[in-house]
Amino acid sequence: MIHFLLRCYHNGMGTKVRKPLSPARYLFLMFLAAVILGSLLLSFPFAHREGVILSFPDALFTAVSAVCVTGLSTVDVHATFSAAGEAIIAILIMVGGMGVAGMIVSTALFLGFRVGLSQRTIVQESYNIGSLKGTLTVLKTVVFSSLLFQGLGALLYYHSFRAMMDPVDAIGYSLFHAISAFNNAGFDLMGNFTSISAFSGDRFYMTVTSALIITGGLGFFVIADTLRSRFSWRRMGMHTKMVYTFTAILLFIGSAGFLLSGDLSVLDSVFLSVTARTAGFSTLDIGSLKGLQILLLMILMFIGASPGSTGGGVKTTTMLTIILALNPFRRSRGVAIFSRGIDEQSVNKAYQVLTLGVFSVLTCTAVLLGAEQHHADPFSLMFESVSAFATVGLSTGITPELSTLSKAALMVSMFIGRLGPITIASTILRKESRIGYIKERVFIG
């Protein structure tokens, strides 16, 4: 099966007339296949607890949310799914976090299959790597770091869960929550849609969770570059420095904003700032937050994590590049940071990602507003849309109450957010013609 998938891209399904699919379309089909397979598995009776009947739309929503590492759920995961169902969700989260292409190619390497140039192109598209150089190195870093951090997280979690349950259940809970935290998924097994509020005030548990979320959200390329540079700031590339710098800025702004805008403790404020970056865990009731706090949450969620990570959003480097490009004092030096210039193509792509992201959120919000006209709080519907697109999973508690049309809109938004607006646009649109048009001046502003 894996060998067949690898060969498909190389020879265009074995035909000479049909051209090979683009990497973007392959990624789209791979994620779609993972969602369909996951929804079918979750709809079988063995995946449910005794006496529970799960509709296929709810199974599909859960599969999309898991593969897109979002965490939004229309059902109580703990009360609905059996141990087998919870294991399936954990596997879907790992597949979505590592990337379907990365999972397939890494498995092929493990089994001894040859990975050619075409397959490396898919990996390059999957992790948003600038060039084909070093794709397999990044892939090995993805596999190694994923297993290492998730395993370490499970070991650290075990002490907390062992105090609440027997050893066997504690192992299962530790593994599930470590996978969910590192992959920024936000799924939990605590039940009653309470997320991890049972650990509110538990500094050890919240610190471990925050560390896993931040590490998974940095991006595998950043992890690989950090290891390559041996943690030396001087040796790190510009992209890595940008990620670390803007991540720290956002964490500080978020923590200070939540602390100053409401009656939250320092620990809750810091954790909320961390989890807003596409993780979706919560130690408090999101619906009880004030309007300013909800707005700050949406801004942090929309920005999200970093490229090539397990998180979503328009990404940290996108926003930082746009901020740098809007600097009125940069004069003729161009867009630059850390004594390095950012090429015009990257700046244009940043604007495209931001525009498509805003368009996706507004479109999803419009659908929800039309389908949920009885809902008294449009702000909550927009929050749900941002959470879906940014693959965060935080909710004010309205997800299970939404109509089928609204749930479908959220699923599409999660899919777009996980693959990226540019990838989705490349999948739908035809390749541009090489013949250019006559250019004319447009008056802007």
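The record above closes out task 2.4. Task 2.5 opens with a second protein, given below.
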Amino acid sequence: MSVKTDAVKRPGFLSRLRSDQSGNTVAMMAAGLIPLTAMIGSGVDISRVYLVKTRLQQACDAGALAGRKQMGSNAWTTGSFAARTSANNMFDANFSVGTSGSETLTRSYSETGGIVTGTASTIVPMVIMKIFGREQTVVSVQCDSQLAVPNTDVMFVLDTTGSMNQADDGTNNQTAVELTNSKIVGLRRAVRCFYEAL
């Protein structure tokens, strides 16, 4: 003899949700919203970080070049560290606190063996990634500048014709004293001075 019962095993919530097609779009959209927000947020914030890093690097390079130019052939400490002051002023003219939302800026320049070296760092607060626990990112750059004279070939074409025996006023010199003021003597003197300058 068989016993009939009205109890029917009901499927679970996830099983019903999987088989039910009505309203699934809202659930799928809600589930996909978190990774989508993370992707958009990382794209927005990383673009800000790259922008700040590019501008920070440009300012650091400009400061190092200005400091090395101001230093010239002198020492780094000449003129109460005038070269370092020039480097800092050039950096400040190109980057300041608040550029693209940056905070807490630090920068410093030093010199060793004629090479001016600079470092700079700033904090970039996150905008969207704060939701996921990433509050800020530290951006740091380094730069250096040195005076380098490349190997350059210099060629002189000198006039050694008879007219070079004339004085600067165009008259022909006859005496030894007058010959010391001739154009050829002046030309030789100028070439020697140019050589010493190089």
